[in-house]
Amino acid sequence: MFSRILVATDLSAASERMVCALKSLQSWGTREAVLVSCFNIRDVGSLAPGLMELSRPAFEKQKKTLEEMGYAVTARMVLGLPQIEIPRQAEEHDCSLIVVGSHGYSFSKDILLGGTASAVVHSARRPVLILRLNGHDPDQEGAACNCLGHILFPTDFSDNAERAFSYVRKIVESGAKRVTLLHVQDREKIERHLKDKLETFNEIDRGRLERLKAELLGLGAAEVSIEIPYGNPKKEIVDRANRPDISLVVMGSQGRGYLEEIFLGSVSHEMARRSKAPLLLVPAPR
């Protein structure tokens, strides 16, 4: 599924914890890793060569960590704009997944890559896995990524959501046994003029989810549950993603709405900012 991944690092203690959490990706068939540290040209300018040299020991340490996990590693230290260079490196090396780490809170202040992660997700043509890191204490461990635990799949039944579901299928084929399928009936859109249609909407959407459930059970899932809450999609999805038993959230980075609900300001942006669970965002085809 993800045979070669790109791991984006800023060489901080936090990113080192992120790297240490990546062994579980081997359950997805990952065998190769491209480790990339992008120095933001806007921040470092002419100081880049010296800073790269000073950072090389930490970079080599992370490379060695990945090699000791069993990955074949290609390592690149580059200069550029992270939101452009990281996706470009993923394309150049034909990586099927980009991995970044985040503290959450605010993308402008607390994100790895030395730039804006939302812009990386917005420009990437490959799926992006965001791993939440636990605070700023270098002694704390990074959030482990249990790739085959309890998978949450929120869907709005858009084309992008269907593409994201193709990855849920593959994760179940890789051994995941428990999946929750989630569709939120948007209170704001329904309450004023369509409230009398809510039962009809629920019946139609449950039928759609039942078909997805049958497919996953046929692929080997042991438990597939369905939830159709009525409320604010951002809140309902984030609340469920932060349940302690959820180990991974898989969703499309775009959905229905104006300009296909561009990532910035969308449900997926809220998830990337607030989800405690690792988040796999799947872009729409371009």
Describe the overall structure.
With 286 residues, the protein is an alpha/beta fold. The protein has two domains: 4-132, HUPs (Rossmann fold); 150-282, Rossmann fold (3-Layer(aba) Sandwich), CATH 3.40.50.620. The chain is 38% helix and 22% strand. The strands form two sheets. Strands 3-2-1-4-5-12-11-6-7-9 form a ten-stranded mixed beta sheet, sandwiched between helices. Helix 6 links the parallel strand 6 and strand 7 (178-182). Helix 4 packs across helix 5 (117-123) and helix 9 packs parallel to helix 10 (267-274). The chain is globular. The two termini are 20 Å apart. Residues 104-115, 135-142 and 257-265 have low confidence and may be disordered.
Any idea of the CATH topology of the largest domain?
Answer: Rossmann fold
Number of strands: 12
Helix content: 25-40%
Indicate the overall shape: globular
Strand content of the residues, in percent? 15-25%
The second-level CATH architecture of the largest domain is: 3-Layer(aba) Sandwich
In CATH, the homologous superfamily of the largest domain goes by the name HUPs
Q: Report strand order across the widest sheet.
A: 3-2-1-4-5-12-11-6-7-9
Q: How many H/I helical runs?
A: 10
Q: What's the domain count? A: 2
List keywords for this structure.
ten-stranded mixed β-sheet, single chain, 2 domains, Rossmann fold, 12 strands, 286 residues, globular, alpha/beta
